[in-house]
Amino acid sequence: MAKKSHPLVDATEPNFLEETFDYSLPPLVRFDGPVIEYVDGEPVEFDPQSLKTRDIVITDTTFRDGQQARPPYAIDQMVHIYDLLSKLGGPSGVVRQTEFFLYTKNDRETLDRCRELGHAYPECTGWIRAVPGDFRLVQEAGLKETGMLTSSSDYHIFGKLKFKSRRECMDAYCQVVDAAFEAGVRPRCHLEDVTRADVDGFILPFAERLMRMSEQVPEDLSVKIRLCDTMGFGLSFPGVELPRSVPKLVYKLNQEVGVPSDRLEWHGHNDFHKVHVNGATAWLYGCDAVNATLFGYGERTGNPPLEGAIFEYIALKGDLSGIQTQVITELADYMRSINFPIPANYPFVGKAFNTTSAGIHAGGLRSDERIYNVFDTSTLLGRPPRVALTDKSGSDGVALWVNEFFGLKGDERLSVMKVHKVARWVRDQYEEHHRMTAISDEELEAKVKELMPQYWAKYKG
Amino acid sequence: MPSVEERVIAVAARVLRLDPSEIKPEHAFTTDLGAESVQSVELVANFEEEFGIEMDEDAALAVQTVGDAVTFIANVCKERGVDV
């Protein structure tokens, strides 16, 4: 390929690329052409602009997959989390559904109390084994939809469920689907381990049979399909072969089998750190629902983090769509209060997610917070950018901390010269006293009071 | 009354813990006199206190040598009407 010349486009005014990096929103995902995937050797175009108009949604499994990986929540805790999920997703139901176990008295009481709140969203659905008798539980609970395990790889069909053949397995699953129809409950078939399954030999024939069965029942009972990347084997890259390709899996089911986008859902796991991007990829290629849990908590390495899906949703749609992003911080604070650990560096909610320790970064933050803050975290999350003071923070870091502490803006902000005594004290902690830990906010507050009494009296007195 | 240069050298000696006789106008604060980042800030803060003035942070921190600091401070004092 011939080299292309790239002359400097000189400028005396900065171009902050604000059509993408509108600071009031997470950076927008903007496409400049179609997305192309080769399927069975032929190029297939996907129109990413359709994401703007498609009713893509987030479904929640915090109380099911999320709870399988931790001690059970108390009923009051689940009701409170449900209430906050509703507030987060807003009136259009971006957080569209959440699923509940139905097996114990506590399960059923939780469901009843959540529904008593009267929220339209998230809709409550169930989760049961693929056993006809379990539909009684769904009926008694008055639910319209339930997920059920329909494991799809030979690892599960032969190794776990001990079927003698794929046909025997498919017949058994379809009997349960029939039982759901008879009970007036919409079945959501969870194709467990789909990224390790024989797609042509089992997944597509099974999906075709489910679509044929769905033609015999009212639309609101027609089968939904959840694609479960149970072991996190899914890959988002174009050109990857089945069964690991997320684009091809979605395409085959959506376009070749004809499962409508609004009846397709992606459920991932994070064994290879691909959980969020795989979910977003499923959205892109035609699957409307991404199943997620709060803060990604779920079996083993977890599920797509719901708050990550929220920011991806906003970035794809280009606006907040009624989402109340500050509820994410409220949820994180609540989870921490009930002993749910969140790592300090965890995106959007970790204690240090927008905290810098490096003096040079603090210097950038001090002159314009956009330089080192991902978006307006003060407005969207109630979390202004901060500095943690260490030996790397420098006077810039101290000045930033002090100005934030006093709440000073614009020309009111104190220069590095005004905080030099505190900066010296910080420096000496490491140079003279060989300190090995960051300096706490409480220590700094005491030092500011001691070493900057005139400013303390002015702003805190 | 000591000159601006004598006062600048006295402040620099105190902040950098040097003997005033070791400090010459041509000396750069960082490379010749060993001022670290926090000491550069302390120098500017102490010059402000010594001369009773406020200086633009970026401009003051950009000054490299003792002689340039003398000129810079003298100019600021003149602009602000401070006798030196």
Descriptive account of the structure:
The complex is a heterodimer of chains A (461) and B (84). In chain A, strands 3-4-5-6-7-8-9-10 form an eight-stranded parallel barrel, surrounded by six helices. With 461 residues, chain A is α/β, with parallel strands linked by helices. The mean pLDDT of chain A is 94. Chain A has 17 helices and twelve strands. Chain A is globular and about 80 Å long. Chain A starts with 34 loop residues before the first strand and ends with a helix. In chain A, helix 7 packs across helix 8 and helix 14 (394-406) crosses helix 15 (420-431). Chain A is 39% helix and 12% strand. Chain A has helices at 65-68, 75-89, 105-116, 135-141, 154-160, 166-182, 199-214, 246-257, 275-285, 306-317, 326-337, 359-367, 377-381, 394-406, 420-431, 441-451, 453-459, and strands spanning 35-39, 42-46, 57-60, 95-101, 123-128, 145-149, 186-191, 224-228, 264-267, 289-292, 355-356, 386-387. In chain A, strand 7, helix 7 and strand 8 (224-228) form a beta-alpha-beta unit. Chain A has two domains: 35-337, TIM Barrel; 356-459, no CATH class. Chain B has 84 residues and is mostly helical. Chain B has one domain (4-80): Orthogonal Bundle (Non-ribosomal Peptide Synthetase Peptidyl Carrier Protein, Chain A). Chain B contains four helices and no strands. Chain B has helices at 4-16, 37-51, 57-62, 66-80. Chain B is globular, with a radius of gyration of 12 Å. The N and C termini of chain B lie close together (9 Å). The mean pLDDT of chain B is 94. Classes of the chains: A alpha/beta (461), B mainly alpha (84). Chains A and B meet through helix 15 of A and helix 2 and helix 3 of B.
- Low-pLDDT runs of 5+ residues of chain B are none
Rg of chain B, Å, rounded: 12 Å
Indicate the structural class of chain B: mainly alpha
Main beta-sheet strand count, sense and barrel state of chain A: 8 strands, parallel, barrel
Major protein interface:
A-B, 11 and 11 residues
> What value does the average pLDDT of chain B take?
94
What is the β-strand count of chain B? 0
Number of helices of chain B: 4
Count of DSSP E strands of chain A?
12
CATH C-level label of the largest domain in chain A: Alpha Beta
User: Spans of chain A with pLDDT under 50 lasting ≥5 residues?
Assistant: none
